[in-house]
Amino acid sequence: MARRCEVCGKGPTTGNQVSHSHILNKRRWLPNLQSVRVNVNGTVKRMRVCTRCLKAGKVVRAV
């Protein structure tokens, strides 16, 4: 399963881990995804949504 938000499409980003002696190692930053139940067109569906989309109200949680 892809580590990608189903609303905005946010996925992992890459960069370097920099040590004190400035040795560079590749690393990844993963998005904060939550598996939530969401109302989509009147039906309840389980989606993986990033917390930024949840906080912005881009999805409506099912109760």
Describe the structure.
There is one protein chain. The chain has one domain (1-63): Roll (Ribosomal Protein L24e, Chain: T), CATH 2.30.170. Strand 1 and strand 2 form a beta hairpin. With 63 residues, the chain is mostly beta strands. The two termini are 25 Å apart. The strands form two sheets. A two-stranded antiparallel sheet has the order 1-2. A two-stranded antiparallel ribbon has the order 3-4. It has one helix and four strands; from the N terminus they run ββββα. The chain is elongated.
Task: Please give the order of strands in the largest beta sheet.
Answer: 1-2
- Shape field: elongated
Report how far the terminal alpha carbons are from each other: 25 Å
Question: Please, how many helices?
Answer: 1
- Structural class call reads mainly beta
CATH topology: Ribosomal Protein L24e, Chain: T
Unreliable stretches covering 5 or more consecutive residues: none
**Tally of distinct domains:** 1
CATH architecture: Roll
Number of strand elements: 4
Order of helices and strands: EEEEH
Our estimate of the beta-strand percent is 35-45%
Radius of gyration in whole Å, from Cα?
A: 16 Å
CATH H-tier superfamily: Ribosomal protein L28/L24
Average the pLDDT over all residues and give the rounded result: 95
What would CATH call the class? Mainly Beta
The description of the largest β-sheet is: 2 strands, antiparallel
Helix content: under 10%
Family: Belongs to the bacterial ribosomal protein bL28 family.
Pfam families: Ribosomal_L28 (PF00830)
InterPro entries: Bacterial_rp_bL28 (IPR050096), Ribosomal_bL28 (IPR026569), Ribosomal_bL28/bL31-like_sf (IPR034704), Ribosomal_bL28_bact-type (IPR001383), Ribosomal_bL28_sf (IPR037147)
Keywords: Ribonucleoprotein, Ribosomal protein
